[in-house]
Design goal:
- The protein folds into 2 domains: 4-97; 111-154.
- The protein contains 8 helices and no strands.
- It is elongated, with a radius of gyration of 21 Å.
- It has helices spanning 4-21, 29-46, 55-73, 80-83, 86-109, 114-124, 129-136, 140-154.
- The longest helix is centred in the middle third of the chain and has 24 residues, at 86-109.
């Protein structure tokens, strides 16, 4: 369902988000990471894709709920503001999507020429077409064509 690298990135991002908002006395960060792995393992077993929810969102919620349960068992009652992380699921989902996009971009760049790679690298640094054109001494149309080509490859 989810490859091991994404699995680790998912746990790490989820635990970091949960730990930043909820303090659990008696638990180290390593303990919480292990709890995150347990939560994702259980989430994989109970995940139902037919419900229209992405696994990343579902797993993020499972981890958050696991951390909240640990806090409660430790005698800490998290307030709403401490665990109000509705955006957490979306930011986690966005982080996983960003990682997948970067992996696809790396694959796409392997098919590009050195000039096209330079165009994309400069573009990703936030340069405008005009700035890229001046810096690399390339026609703006070539820059646009290259960027559109790579966007199609990444999709």
């Amino acid at each position: 369902m989810i490859n091991p690298t994404q699995y680790q990135q998912l746990v790490s991002a989820s635990v970091r988000a949960a730990v930043m908002t909820i303090k659990v006395p008696g638990y180290t960060e390593e303990d919480l990471i292990h709890e995150g792995y347990l939560a994702i393992y259980r989430a994989e077993k109970s995940f139902d894709p037919s419900r229209g929810v992405k696994f990343e969102t579902y797993a993020g919620r499972a981890i958050r709920n696991r951390i909240i349960d640990l806090a409660r068992k430790s005698g800490v009652t998290p307030t709403q503001s401490q665990y109000e992380i509705d955006a957490h699921g979306e930011s986690l989902e966005s982080e996983v999507e960003r990682i997948q996009l970067m992996e696809r971009l790396q694959v796409a760049l392997k098919t590009c020429t050195a000039t096209e790679q330079a165009i994309i690298a400069t573009y990703l640094k936030g340069q405008s077409y005009r700035e890229i054109s001046e810096k690399l001494v390339i026609d703006a149309k070539k820059i646009d064509n290259t960027i559109q080509k790579v966007k199609k490859l990444v999709r």
